[in-house]
Write a sequence for this structure.
């Protein structure tokens, strides 16, 4: 029966991963199997995995191997997540233990730049579309594999044309549900920033996203009507005043690297002064 076990790799949690791209090459000699052949291989594989007391099965299906999806679903696999070019389906094998396969990431990360120049002016902008069209801090969502400092520097530049450097995290807002995607939360980091060059702070609004952008004095912000700026942003500015008055580093970033087992990891440590 092991002659028909799909090529797989084991993980540290006693689970297995099958990739349709590797199976296509190694198990089927670069020829798409018939539904009957694929079913025979899958059933033999599941029987083998159960005999070895494996826990979870992860099956990565490339877009061009979509014929696997119905076959997997018919054998108890469910969708875990999808990307542009593949989806991943999973099946929990033990009948006497609860399913402990981790969920796909369920929290998005957003950033906002509280940019202040040497005159004490604050950089604000308006979106062209969205549920809130008043004045706000420039920002947006972090990209995959992007740090918080890199994300906020990119977003501020994209939306306003101003190059500013991350200084520290002022505060953050967490929504545990009701984020941008179903059953997802959102964490939004407000970051204190300074212009890279005070002589080069002319605004160049993004034609696609930005309806308006201005350096505003605090008096100008205070005189805005309530429909033009949300209390949330005024609260952030209150916290900015307290932070600046304290003359401390606040929540700043230091790089940290460590070796954990065979993996070398690097990350940002957020330290509070």
């Amino acid at each position: 029966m092991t002659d028909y076990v799909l090529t797989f790799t084991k993980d540290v949690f006693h689970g297995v991963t099958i990739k349709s791209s590797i199976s296509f090459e190694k198990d089927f000699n670069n020829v798409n199997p018939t539904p009957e052949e694929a079913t025979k291989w899958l059933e033999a594989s599941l029987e083998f995995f159960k005999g070895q007391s494996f826990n979870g099965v992860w099956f990565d299906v490339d877009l061009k191997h979509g014929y696997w999806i119905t076959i997997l679903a018919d054998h108890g696999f469910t969708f875990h997540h999808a990307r542009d070019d593949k989806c991943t389906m999973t099946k929990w094998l033990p009948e006497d233990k609860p399913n402990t396969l981790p969920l796909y990431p369920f929290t998005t990360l957003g950033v906002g730049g509280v940019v202040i120049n040497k005159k004490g002016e604050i950089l604000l902008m308006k979106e062209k579309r969205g549920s809130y069209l008043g004045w706000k801090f420039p920002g947006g969502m972090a990209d995959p594999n992007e740090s918080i400092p890199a994300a906020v520097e990119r977003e501020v530049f994209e939306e306003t044309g101003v190059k500013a450097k991350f200084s520290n995290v002022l505060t953050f807002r967490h929504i545990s549900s009701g984020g941008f995607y179903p059953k997802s939360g959102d964490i939004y980091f407000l970051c204190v920033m300074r212009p890279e060059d005070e002589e080069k702070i002319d605004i160049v609004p993004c034609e696609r996203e930005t309806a308006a952008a201005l350096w505003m004095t605090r008096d100008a912000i205070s005189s805005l009507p309530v429909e033009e700026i949300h209390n949330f942003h005024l609260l952030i500015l209150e916290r900015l005043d307290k932070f600046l008055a304290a003359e401390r580093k606040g929540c700043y970033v230091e790089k940290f690297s460590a070796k954990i087992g065979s993996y070398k990891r690097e990350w940002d440590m957020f330290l509070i002064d």
